[in-house]
Amino acid sequence: MGKSVEAKDLNIYYGSFLAVEGVNMTIKPKTVTALIGPSGCGKSTFLRSINRMHENIPGARVEGRLELDGQDLYGANVDPVGVRRQIGMVFQRPNPFPTMSIYDNVIAGMKLNNKKASKSELDDTVERSLRGANLWNEVKDRLEKPGSGLSGGQQQRLCIARAIAVRPDVLLMDEPCSALDPISTLAIEDLINELKNDYTIVIVTHNMQQAARVSDFTGFFNIEGTGKPGKLVELDETKTIFSQPKQKATEDYVSGRFG
Amino acid sequence: MTGTGLEAPASTTPAVLRRKGSLPRWAPLGILAATAVVMAGVAAATGSGVGLWAFLTAVVYAVATYTTSRVVEGARKAADRLVTVIVTGAFVLAMVPLVSVLWTVIAQGWERFDVTFFTNSMRGIVGEGGGALHAIQGTLIITGLAAAMSIPVGVLTAIYLVEYGSNSKLSRAITFFVDVMTGIPSIVAGLFAYALFTLLLGPGVRFGFVGAVALTVLMIPIVVRSTEEMLKIVPNELREAAFALGVPKWRTILKVVIPTTAGGIATGITLAIARVIGETAPLLVTVGLATGVNLNPFDSRMATLPVFSYYSYATPGVPRDPFLDRAWTAALVLMLIVMILNVVARLISRYFSPKTR
Ligand SMILES: Nc1ncnc2c1ncn2[C@@H]1O[C@H](COP(=O)(O)OP(=O)(O)OP(=O)(O)O)[C@@H](O)[C@H]1O
Ligand SMILES: [Mg+2]
């Protein structure tokens, strides 16, 4: 578990619109990489191209290379479904399955794929994942209740539990805390710190303190103007980005002098 | 003016916030009763009927409520009350024919709502007695066949349109033709099925399956439309959540999208069945009528409740009354079947609908 991700000259399109251009990025295994940048610069687009969710949008496509531990993810014989089994994702808004109980939500990845597993195996997975997502103590007495009956923050942690239950190599998070209160946010940040022992994590955030707190590396995306493609301006160790970035644009952005 | 104990003293409340007087709780009913009584007097004096009385009461009541409220409570409250009266009036108006039909059918159909009606056919019956067992069975068989054909086709079409079509030319064409099909008069559907089987099997063929095909033509567009609407309201986030877990698209549709909205789909299907189960014209053309039980939809004519009811009423024998009674009871049974279907749909949708507690 915990593989490296490498993007080489990645161009990402929506139809004929080039949304993200020329990304070269290496993400080391078992690290947390934060992606920051102004709204509309293509952070989500880049993130969704890593697990090939991007191509679900009609007309959307990708050029260039994206590798998981050296394996080309966009190769001709690569199944996007297989890619998504190795690269999990947590969305900005919590989206538990409304027809499923908390228990079933956690093992949704196995259940929906008809994986055969014994009851005790499933129980173990549920407990391990919920503990991993810091949710076990809050829900252990009501695992049969629907997942949509939880609070927003609990639902988001349930979604994280669901994502780690299938033991992916990489975990992508798109603004996972933007709908949460400070306490839930802290809980999730703690969780990210623990998760990086096992997983490679890429997190998009608008909160610079959060990027500084949780990440080892930070990538800054920027866009020159509307209609222009977003670009990766700089990727470096988080403390370098926040103290002495090489690019002027990065410095302006992290110090709040943007635009 | 009292209540929460939080209001500031009246003198310091700014004009915008200040509440005007309010009518007591019983005011609407009181005004209605008074209007009704006064109008009853007017109607009696002028010798006009119940219809005119109800109409006058409604109009005068609306005016009276508005003026009273306007004087006591101010313009905004008055408008609110006026609209409430109009909305309630529309509701009552809509209920009048419904209740009237229900009442008539129950009252007239009650006479023969007995065990014989459900256990006997019309074989060898010329006057009293007899029943509609054969017609009940025929209706269930033909509608069942129609449902068995149109539900898979309709649901799968809707799935194609919503999940795979993504606004392609083909999907837009399908949507267009489905809309056109919705408007087909039922007799045309009947003639279509009749013509089709005449071409296939020679002239004059009439059997249950032909009727089922006619009903299928009517049912498919309804099923497609309702299922499509239901699938569209499943949030895209749920599909993405499943995709992100490495679930293939077909499994996502089967195990996430459809269960999430199963209740709605089931309701739509039940309403579609309820819509076609009472069809008379196409069955008249394609299936005809029989006096005895025929359980084979692929051979010879078959009785159905609507056609049975129609023939008993339109061409009664001598004496007339037993035929008319049976016609009404057949209508009552048909209505009960539709009602049971609706209850079933509710139960299904309650069972499937996502729970939050
Ligand atoms: N489904 C789509 N179809 C077409 N264009 C899109 C689509 N989604 C995003 N875009 C465009 O791609 C560009 C990048 O969008 P993206 O959502 O990746 O930005 P972002 O950096 O995640 O912004 P934010 O911080 O606001 O979430 C924007 O110009 C946006 O308008
Ligand atoms: Mg985004």
TrEMBL record, chain A:
ABC transporter domain sequence ranges: 5-248
Descriptive protein name: Phosphate transport system ATP-binding protein
One Gene Ontology term from the biological process aspect of the record: phosphate ion transmembrane transport
Molecular function (Gene Ontology), one example: phosphate transmembrane transporter activity
Keyword flag ATP-binding: yes
UniProt key word Transferase: no
Gene Ontology cellular component annotations, sorted alphabetically: membrane
SMART domains to which the protein is assigned, alphabetical: AAA (SM00382)
Classification via Pfam families: ABC_tran (PF00005)
Keyword set, alphabetical order: ATP-binding, Nucleotide-binding, Translocase, Transport
InterPro entries tied to this protein: AAA+_ATPase, ABC_transporter-like_ATP-bd, ABC_transporter-like_CS, P-loop_NTPase, PstB-like
NCBIfam families recorded: 3a0107s01c2
Automatic annotation (TrEMBL), chain B:
Membrane topology according to the record: Multi-pass membrane protein
Keyword entries, A-Z: Cell membrane, Membrane, Phosphate transport, Transmembrane, Transmembrane helix, Transport
Coiled-coil ranges per UniProt: none
Its biological purpose: Part of the binding-protein-dependent transport system for phosphate; probably responsible for the translocation of the substrate across the membrane.
An individual GO BP term: phosphate ion transmembrane transport
Transmembrane segments: 26-44, 50-69, 81-106, 140-162, 174-197, 203-224, 256-277, 327-348
GO cellular component: plasma membrane
Organism: Pseudonocardia ammonioxydans
Subcellular location(s) of the protein: Cell membrane
Protein name: Phosphate transport system permease protein PstA
Family membership noted in the UniProt record: Belongs to the binding-protein-dependent transport system permease family. CysTW subfamily.
Signal peptide feature range: none
